[in-house]
Amino acid sequence: xxxxxxxxxxxxxxxxxxxxxxxxxxxxxxxxxxxxxxxxxxxxxxxxxxxxxxxxxxxxxxxxxxxxxxxxxxxxxxxxxxxxxxxxxxxxxxxxxxxxxxxxxxxxxxxxxxxxxxxxxxxxxxxxxxxxxxxxxxxxxxxxxxxxxxxxxxxxxxxxxxxxxxxxxxxxxxxxxxxxxxxxxxxxxxxxxxxxxxxxxxxxxxxxxxxxxxxxxxxxxxxxxxxxxxxxxxxxxxxxxxxxxxxxxxxxxxxxxxxxxxxxxxxxxxxxxxxxxxxxxxxxxxxxxxxxxxxxxxxxxxxxxxxxxxxxxxxxxxxxxxxxxxxxxxxxxxxxxxxxxxxxxxxxxxxxxxxxxxxxxxxxxxxxxxxxxxxxxxxxxxxxxxxxxxxxxxxxxxxxxxxxxxxxxxxxxxxxxxxxxxxxxxxxxxxxxxxxxxxxxxxxxxxxxxxxxxxxxxxxxxxxxxxxxxxxxxxxxxxxxxxxxxxxxxxxxxxxxxxxxxxxxxxxxxxxxxxxxxxxxxxxxxxxx
Length: 529
Hints:
It comes from Phytophthora pseudosyringae. By secondary structure, this protein is α/β, with parallel strands linked by helices. The chain contains 22 helices and 19 strands.
């Protein structure tokens, strides 16, 4: 970044993700790294300059009162007269391009067109949920504002990776959520929605609904995505309520539009949930592990399995923290409340006719009544985290039983008809584990040994731990056991993750749970429109 020439533009999705903070960081870092350079920092509103300060290389600064283009020019001439280089730093799109210049701005189509030919625009990524939790912990928001990990997850599920909304004082939450719904309700039809998704000019902007994100291949390219699971659901419901759209009609309108994939996924998943709640027969195919000798010789007929799903008069929607063996008295289909639930989208457990169920009783019941875990997806590849499966099994009291005999459970991928034939066995991603030995480990920790693999430990906490010479899970546990870890070094969530950590044989057992694939009939789906 020290060899800057021309004009560079840095764009967040549309405000609220920390543009001003990054602007300040960039300024401080540039000031520290560059010699013999004056920085002219400017702030623009509606392409008009309203603030400007000249920062000189001797540490002095001069604020320009009621600045104009002429004032900026005079400052530039003064710097060059003293043999200094000049660097322009702008908050907001300027009225003209100078060089060298870096512009921090929310997406502005006119400005983007202006700088497009220079290929010098970078797009800031959104926050992840884990990053937001770490930031909230670092800022002490749980104590000062009641913004706990659970609150951050709920807000992330509603607003997406936008720090401003996710850290908003609680009293403003409902109003902000209402404004988001109002923006969604302003989308009048599927044609307008498609235009928004594809980036074509419309009468609406919808920065709350649609977020710019950097392309996976390079930060100088952008794409759009719907902000959150809440937004996906509300947009789908809005589109289904106008012009008498059906799910099939909406799916057809979004066909071939990558930015609409989350909507298509919601339509498919919702239909699948409803079908499973009504009860159905699923013709599934066992997904073979072809690395096992002889498996590749088995034909498809031998792999077929019929799953009979009984109707659920009152489907059970659960939170993981409340899940227990008593779930067997409800359902028999169970759906998590949160759209951010890890690894599974629902499970089926034949109902027990009892007024009370203990874990041992459920283990006995499970020997002849298989637990079926469902994952709905429109993707050909869908890795599953072992930790999510383990969490559900542990809450049900079935973890050790399934570890001993993985065939007491089944993992069923429910996918569209057009991809079921070629669907392959999916990867089960192992959870973080301790090393097999408690012996001293070198500083070069493996990925599974690293403290960064513990849920709740992000880069900032990892850096703090490294300063304490703690890089591995074993070293962290040793510090906790010896009570030498300073208070508030890591989040409570990380402590819980460490406490619940199991040896690698549990993840290995989850990978041995039989996997199946089945399609969900669009005829059944359409019946619920």
